[in-house]
Design goal:
46% of the residues lie in helices and 17% in strands. The protein is of the alpha+beta class. The mean pLDDT is 92.
Length: 185
């Protein structure tokens, strides 16, 4: 692994750890979702198959947003609402692409999405970070279905994390999208 990549991994995990510690101390529930969650799941099985993301996505309850904004300020994460996105920008690296992007459970990220963000399922604890389970991640990735989401689904599938039992629980439109991803591998 090159030094730049390792440094980026360390930075993301450090920002995620500050975020997680502040919320845990206040008893606010969250789940790490998105590319970092995919990375953590895939890395646990096959580190060479794990791809990194630029930012951190976290699912929270909208009712906790004000408290989260207040709690994270002392640890160097400043709340911003930019271009319709709620995020916590690291005061040490104030770029939207390295921020914690907040999405809200039981809400659609975009109006045209098939499903809402799943409510909190039991999380995987990875070094103190509560990470969404694979089934929730796959649902979210198949719902948004952008190029990078399809790549994340392929990564999860390539290491055997998408099981037939999980797939059977998806609604038909998501099963069709999963079949589409598998057909283009």
């Amino acid at each position: 692994m090159n030094a730049h990549y390792e440094k980026h991994v360390e930075q993301l995990v450090e920002v995620a750890a500050r975020f997680a510690a502040a919320l845990a101390k206040a008893g606010i529930e969250y789940r790490i979702v998105g590319g970092l969650a995919v990375y953590l799941h895939v890395n646990a099985i096959d580190p060479l198959a794990a791809r990194l993301t630029r930012d951190i996505d976290a699912a929270v309850r909208r009712t906790d947003l004000h408290a989260i904004a207040q709690l994270l300020k002392p640890v160097g994460l400043e709340f911003r609402h930019v271009a319709g996105v709620d995020m916590l920008v690291d005061s040490r690296e104030p770029k939207a692409r390295s921020a914690v992007h907040l999405i809200f459970v039981n809400e659609k990220v975009r109006q045209h999405y098939i499903e809402t963000v799943p409510d909190f399922s039991p999380a995987l604890n990875v070094d103190g970070l509560f990470v969404a389970p694979v089934s929730d991640l796959v649902r979210m990735k198949l719902t948004s279905f952008r190029d990078k989401d399809r790549v994340h689904v392929r990564d999860l599938d390539s290491v055997g994390l998408i099981t037939p039992e999980m797939e059977a629980q998806f609604p038909e439109p998501l099963r069709q999208r999963l079949a589409q991803v598998r057909a283009t591998e």
